Amino acid sequence: MRARILFATLTGNNEDVADVIIAEFQRLGVETIKEDITNVEALDLNPTTQDILVTVVYTFDLGTLADEAIDFYEDLPDVDLAGVVYGVAGSGDVYYGQDYGTAVDILEQQFTKTQGIQGAPGVKVNLRPDAQATIELEQFTQALVKQAQRI
Fold first, then answer.
1. CATH architecture label of 2-150
2. Residues of 24-44 as b/e, b for ≥16 C-beta within 10 angstroms?
3. Is 122 exposed, middle or buried (0-12, 13-18, 19+ CB in 10 A)?
4. What's the predicted TM-score (pTM) here?
5. CA-to-CA distance for 61 and 40, rounded, in angstroms?
6. What is the secondary structure of 68-120 as a DSSP string?
7. How would residue 105 be classed by pLDDT, with cut points 50, 70 and 90?
């Protein structure tokens, strides 16, 4: 089984989130690839190159998607991810109240247009992964793997 993790980060928090997910994938014996989302064209995604696709994006400003992920986001509805399990995680800051972690919601909504299979509800991390967020990210990763095993 192969997982591809795409991340966007300014502060390093989302790379930390991605690394927690990767560590759990590796513990579960899943081959993983980690890439900066700016280096990936959504239109080049091929369902045969990964079983699981995870995006880790941060929420910017007042609830907007990270600039690094906008091109990916805009092209995503034109991608056929039939048979691919997807999941979205990302950091935010609870200081922003209702705008906290909205990038996760925004990207999850866009993934519904790809025919991919949502493997787990999105995970929002306040700033960087603490002990509780690490547990949630590990459970998220386990759910993705279980869903991919069903296919």
1. 3-Layer(aba) Sandwich (3.40)
2. bbeebebebebeebeebebee
3. buried
4. 0.96
5. 23
6. GGHHHHHHGGG---TT-EEEEEEEE-GGGGGGTTHHHHHHHHHHTTTT-EE-S
7. very high
